Amino acid sequence: MSGERARILVVDDEKVIRDSCTRILTTEGHIIKSAENGNIGLEVFREFHPDLVLVDLKMPGKSGMDVLEEIESIDPNVVQIVITGYATVSSAVDAMKRGAYDFIPKPFTPEEILLIVGRGLEKRRLLLESEALKVEHERIRRNMISLVSHELRAPLAATVQYLEVILGGMAGEIPSEAKEMIVRCDIRLQEMLELLRKWLNLATFDSPKMAEHFQDISLSDIATESIELMKSLAEEKKISLILETSKDLPPIKGSKVSLEEIFNNLISNAIKYNKAGGWVKVILYGREEEVWVEISDNGSGIDEEHLSRIFDEFYRVDGRRNAPIKGSGLGLSIVKKMVDAHGGMIDVESKFGEGTTFRIGFPKFFQRQKEG
Amino acid sequence: MEQIHLNRECLKLGKREEGGMSQKKRILIVDDDPDFAAAIQKILTSADYYVGVAGNVEDGMKAIEEEIPDLILLDVMMEKYDDGFNMCYDLKHDDRYRGIPVIIVTAVTEVTGLKFNPETDGEYLEADDYVQKPISAEALLTKVARLI
After folding, report:
1. B42–A171: do the CB atoms touch at under 8 Å?
2. E strand map for chain A
3. Which of B112, B123, B131 to mutate to test the interface with A (most CBs of A within 10 A)?
4. Which among B111, B119, B133 has CB closest to A161?
5. Which of A102, A125, A246, B70 holds its CA 20 to 30 A away from the CA of A169?
């Protein structure tokens, strides 16, 4: 920014200060606009998009401190320098605490203002550079993830697709022993695909972006669909699925696919870590500002020592390679992240050998969090 | 290249038999993964469809210009990560081709994946259906039968 044309806004009620700043800084090739009070200053700020703002602290009407804070909240990367009257160093310090980069006491010489503005513009250049690097870094990270996952998925997908053809008998008869082995190959590869899918899901999860597409969602529809999807798994393990939903359950604001992911993960866990003849119960009810979801089972339960870590990425209660039930260790961290993205909360209660209950509260009215 | 050529012959073969009693429906697969395409082709030919394969967008468009298929199975990420997107967009904005049902096939349809999300990109994409690789023979045939 130094050596280049910068855009500078001067907000001061004294005409002589505005004029002298304009004159001095124009000789450096900068583009200057000025305003005689805080309100006009903010108006000009929004149109002009300056790199640097000089603000007088003492002005009639809106105070310089308020202008400072408002500009800071609009764009924290704008460098602000306060102009203070004589012997008001304490207010200058106060201003710097609220985001000003530097201060210049009145009266000042052309050399003094040029020096301070020059330093301020250098700061601005560094801020913009670091912002651009951050954006670039995130872009590379996401592209990398997406590329790697595609390169990993594609060969798996092609292989599994061939196995589907072979197992479907479309490529001729297969001896039964070979068939058993191919079935195992298929299962192992499917597990790997699922692991990749979950990992990609976590790594590329972007909650502000998702929140942009929130819509009214009926959780009882989502629960019904999820239970329908899990029916065959439940029948296989002889588990009964129960849905209880209160009448007039209000909708929540959310993302359909993510909410499905939450229900599918929790319900399939409740089925997998259960015993023949067990049950899985999904209860939905509204209370004041929230809609609550309870997913409970009378399955194997989780030992207390594991309970605090079950939402951690790659954490598995039974991490043995030959564990009877294979999990990726990612399901619950996905659930947690997605509940958070909906502004909700989740907790878990469990007794080893007796069963587990997950309880999620979703706000009816989602307030988008501030970015950053 | 040879495979693409061979598969185009398949399409033409279908045409020659058209005068016969039964008219087999023609499906065009546009996918740059020859293994995946071959597996899908086998599933579809087993269900009595004529199937052509093109390994990129250019060959795909040529095949369509020669003979309009009854359905297209279109991969998203080929040479460029959005080849399939663009081809689908072009087809759906061309009066000659907008009526051809298009099923988008992709390995990356993640919930929040960067590249593709039916919730956010569906409007732009205008495909008739989506499937994720790999797909069970039954699910594929159901989707195809519904659109053809």
Report:
1. yes
2. 7-11, 31-35, 52-56, 79-84, 102-105, 215-217, 240-245, 252-254, 279-287, 290-297, 345-351, 355-363
3. B112
4. B133
5. B70
Q: Where are the beta strands (DSSP E) in A199-353?
A: 215-217, 240-245, 252-254, 279-287, 290-297, 345-351
Are A39 and A16 within 8 A, CB to CB? no
Percentage of chain A surpassing pLDDT 90? 59
State the CB neighbour count (10 A cutoff) for residue A156. 17
Percent over 70 (pLDDT), chain A: 95
Q: State the Cα–Cα distance between residues A361 and A344, nearest whole angstrom.
A: 5
Query: Are the Cβ atoms of B42 and A154 closer than 8 angstroms?
Result: no
Which site among A147, A150, A161 would you substitute to test the B interface, given the most B Cβ atoms closer than 10 Å to its Cβ? A161
- The torsion angles phi and psi of B98, rounded to 5 degrees, stand at -65, -20
pLDDT per position as a tens digit, B87-101: 998 999 899 999 999
Considering the entire predicted model, what is its pTM?
0.59
Q: How far apart are CA A277 and CA A295, in angstroms?
A: 17
Q: Do A158 and B33 touch (CB under 8 A)?
A: yes
* Mean pLDDT value across residues A179-199: 89
CB A299 within 8 A of CB A281: no
Q: Is A93 within 8 Å of chain B by CB?
A: no
Q: In Å, how far is B72's CA from the nearest CA of chain A? A: 18
Q: Do B112 and A157 touch (CB under 8 A)?
A: no
ipTM of the complex: 0.75
Of A124, A98, A109, A90, the residue nearest A9 (C-alpha) = A124
CA-to-CA dists, residue A94 to A84, A89, A315, B42, angstroms: 11, 9, 47, 75
Identify residue A185 by its one-letter amino acid code.
C
Contact state of B35 with A161 under an 8 Å Cβ cutoff: yes
Q: How many residues does chain B have?
A: 148
Which of B33, B49, B111, B120 to mutate to probe the A interface, most A CBs <10 Å? Answer: B111
The 10s digit of each residue's pLDDT in B26-65 is 999 999 999 999 999 999 999 999 999 999 999 999 999 9
Domain B2-147 is of which CATH architecture? 3-Layer(aba) Sandwich (3.40)
